[in-house]
Amino acid sequence: MSKVMTKAVYTTVESPLGELLLVGEGSPTAKGGTALASLSLPGQKGGVAVRDGWVRDDEAFAVIAGQLRAYFAGTLTDFDVEYASGVGTDFQRRVWQALDSLPYGTTTSYGKLAERLGIPRAAVRALGTAIGRNPLLVVRPCHRVIAADGSLAGYAGGLEAKRRLLDLESRSRSGN
Known about the structure:
alpha/beta; Arc Repressor Mutant, subunit A; 6 strands; MethylDNA_cys_MeTrfase_DNA-bd
């Protein structure tokens, strides 16, 4: 993430989970916003905090902020966000791409995701570590990965936030 932080811009967005911190590269993208490098929840394990030299630029994140508001309102099920390049290892990016393909309102287990990616059972812990290092909570849906027994496990934003995201998607999907 250090490559992105040299020209970091940021904003905050209010959400039902608290104030989200969005950080990105300073140049506009083809989608009319800023490439997103990080989305942190309040109290997130390993979350990003605003640093000296960063520039607040609410307009640079207007597109993603609007998408986040629509998601939390239950009217958006698929984010269309440009991510900052150069973030994560090859393995992490492979896992994160798989997270991006998890359908709204569904869940999968760590084991099933590993199987889908061709990751041996002995390396499921590495998969969990890659998921835990996802810098884009909410928009890259790592909250949709649960334990094999259906229980909630491991979420950098905390299990209560994971539960709230899954409940939101479940209610929106069922039309309630």
